[in-house]
Design brief:
By secondary structure, this protein is an alpha/beta fold. It contains six helices and eleven strands. The chain has a single domain, classed as Spore Coat Polysaccharide Biosynthesis Protein SpsA, Chain A, CATH 3.90.550.10. It has helices at 33-42, 81-95, 114-127, 170-182, 190-196, 216-229, and strands at 4-10, 27-28, 31-32, 47-54, 72-76, 101-104, 130-136, 141-144, 150-154, 160-169, 201-205. Strand 2 (27-28) and strand 3 form a beta hairpin. The longest helix is centred in the middle third of the chain and has 15 residues, at 81-95.
Amino acid sequence: MNSIWAVVPAAGSGRRLGGEIPKQYREIAGAPLMEHTLRALLESPDIRGIVVALDPSDRRADAINSLADVRVQTTPGGAERADSVMAGLELLAQQGSEDDWVLVHDAARPCLPLESLTELIDRARQSGEGVILAEPVADTLKQVAENGQISATVDRQSLWRAQTPQLFPLFALRAALGRCLEEGLSVTDEAMAMERAGKPVHVVEGPSSNIKVTVEADLAFADLVLRKRGGQ
């Protein structure tokens, strides 16, 4: 493993959260959500640089102070998350080497602790294979038919809820994700693309606080986590 880069897809509108402002620009704990996300990545000395994929028509990004950091660059994002990730990978492919790795992190996960990020990177260095943060499923899971009736209780023992960051060799991820996009597959995370390419992917347990902000209640929870972490 030579250099480690990061890609942050941030061109979406956050339709599920609603509101006029995309969720990555909503303010929590005194700063836009995406500002906290970038700070969490920039805190790691292992990350050489970050590419943020943005909607080129959205001027709200001008309020993100971390975009001015020397380790951060931007690129136009795409219509879907996978398109934005691919845009970031294409840019890094022009700058990186065959031994470089890349982690992808959701713009809407502002509560990533440095110790979890460090553990993820250390595990990838030890194994030489892809690693993602994930959390064991704690709830009882039900399989439900179209009519709303429960058809089965699913064994949760081997089930994990995927988080980000997700860390892989740069060019292997670029090739795997590119094939999925060419085939018109809906790719919800990078591990899915690597799995389809036959590559092993491991999990490192991430904290439950490393949530992806999706609904209004998530904003309040993330605000609480960040203020508590900052001693506010």
